[in-house]
Amino acid sequence: MGLAALSWIFVPRGLAAQCDTLSGHVRAGESYRHPFGGGLSFRLRANASAPPNPDGWTVEVRAGADGEHDFVWVATPPYHWWNPRYLDTSYGLDAQEAVARDVRSFRFVTSEAAYDSLARAVEVLVSSRPQGMTQSEWDAAGDSARATWTAMLDRAGRGELRITGAEVSDSTAGRPRGRIERLAFTAVLCWGESTPR
User: Fold this and answer.
1) What is the spatial distance between Cα 26 and Cα 58, in angstroms, rounded to a whole number?
2) Which CATH number fits domain 16-110+156-193: 2.60.120, 3.40.50, 3.30.70, 2.60.98?
3) Predicted confidence (pLDDT) at residue 88 exceeds the cutoff of 70
């Protein structure tokens, strides 16, 4: 599927699409970083390999080379379960099962300000009602957070990572779920401005 065909999948109606396509590979324990979008950085961050951490990587987008916040986690639910940004042996997956999920779609915000707004909305949506807040106040806060969350995700960038090759090792006593030894991938990252087409 070409880039032109992908742009209608990734970019919401009414946005002028800008997309970058990149390809790369990583070995176990290595991270990958590539700039895109005039100031953003796509990353596969290697997870710490010491138990109980799962072997593999986490898909991230950050501002610049060393941005403080991961712009993917805040825009890619679910927030309390397996998530497509995990390329690892978490949530009961073994290495072979992890790479069998070879297409990972995700969203990302494109600025620290958008991250802050969406993170506040997510915090309300995934939390329990604070002690001292009435149910009607909590319902109003939830309605406001859902409206913010929906509006921001409609404008969020979209990405797709496709695993194009992988090598996995079998389970061992130290790694009962095996290990992803090498990963080759292609990623398409699309974002846009709120301007009519």
Assistant:
1) 12
2) 2.60.98
3) yes
